[in-house]
From TrEMBL:
Highest taxon of the lineage: Bacteria
Rieske domain sequence ranges: 140-207
Function: Iron-sulfur subunit of the cytochrome bc1 complex, an essential component of the respiratory electron transport chain required for ATP synthesis. The bc1 complex catalyzes the oxidation of menaquinol and the reduction of cytochrome c in the respiratory chain. The bc1 complex operates through a Q-cycle mechanism that couples electron transfer to generation of the proton gradient that drives ATP synthesis.
Keyword Ribonucleoprotein in record: no
GO cellular component: membrane
GO molecular function, one term: oxidoreductase activity, acting on paired donors, with incorporation or reduction of molecular oxygen
Organism, scientific name: uncultured Solirubrobacteraceae bacterium
Cofactor or coenzyme needed: [2Fe-2S] cluster
Name of the protein in question: Cytochrome bc1 complex Rieske iron-sulfur subunit
Keywords, ordered alphabetically: 2Fe-2S, Disulfide bond, Iron, Iron-sulfur, Membrane, Metal-binding, Transmembrane, Transmembrane helix
Pfam families: Rieske
Length: 249
């Protein structure tokens, strides 16, 4: 009997589907709460009919002015830092001397201007020799009749020098060693020394843009030191959009 009474009470409190629909419609028709004016909210100094307090208005104005000021200083700085990455550089060639000055059994150093307008800081030494058919097995074309080797170590960028007695490029910073072709022969460098395009014009040798190579001396768009180009490394370290190797090379 007690269970029957509890069941009856439960059924009495259960709403019918019709009651549920009526309750849902009533909730939909409920009017939104009216927004109080500052005077109705009893904010000191409020005007009649005012919905935004002067304090809130001044706070919003100050925040907006601060945002504009920050953007005025930040956006130009970001643009100055990022723009050079996307500023495409045109190939530039520099004459380094008559072709007869460069033998095929040793390197001849020449000073090359890599960045104009900054004096000696923008200059670097390049080691140049003629293509040696007994040593060089890379595919020959108009841009490698002469081999121009960069002196920037591919470990951390320290300057290397060519030691004629050992026919090696030596990095004094961390013991990087490269063979006669510029391939890694020991130490921490992750890839061979970078190279420069060369071409012959009116009996003179011109040195052009820099490019990077992997262990097989395959050409890639220039990379920074510490970026390997063998295997998956060539995909993990993409080149900058502004600096690319010459087309079809």
């Amino acid at each position: 009997m007690f269970a029957t009474t509890r069941t009856a009470a439960r059924l009495a409190h259960r709403k019918s589907p019709r009651d549920a629909r009526f309750h849902f419609v009533a909730r939909e028709r409920k009017q939104p709460k009216k927004k109080l004016t500052t005077e109705e909210a009893q904010i000191p100094g409020a005007f009649e009919g005012e919905t935004v307090s002067r304090r809130r208005f001044m706070t919003g104005t100050a925040h907006a002015a601060s945002g504009i000021a920050v953007a005025a200083f930040t956006l130009p700085a970001v643009g100055f830092a990022v723009a050079p990455v996307f500023d495409k550089q045109e190939p530039r060639w520099e004459t380094v001397g008559p072709v007869g000055d460069f033998p095929d059994d040793t390197y001849v150093p020449r000073t090359l201007t890599l960045v104009r307008g900054i004096g000696d800081v923008g200059k670097s030494t390049v080691y140049i020799r003629k293509y040696n058919t007994d040593l060089d097995d890379e595919e020959r074309d108009e841009y490698n009749e002469f081999i121009a080797i960069s002196t920037r170590c591919m470990h951390l960028g320290c300057p290397v020098r060519f030691v004629a007695a050992s026919e090696r490029f030596i990095c004094p910073c961390h013991g990087g060693v490269y063979d006669f072709q510029g391939k890694v022969d020991g130490g921490p460098p992750v890839r061979p020394l970078d190279r420069f395009y060369t071409r012959i014009r009116n009996g003179n040798l011109e040195v052009g843009p820099r490019f990077s190579v992997n262990s097989e001396l395959k050409r890639f768009s220039p990379r920074d030191p510490g970026m390997p180009l063998d295997g998956i490394g060539q995909y993990l370290y993409p080149a900058r959009p502004s600096v690319r190797k010459l087309p079809n090379t």
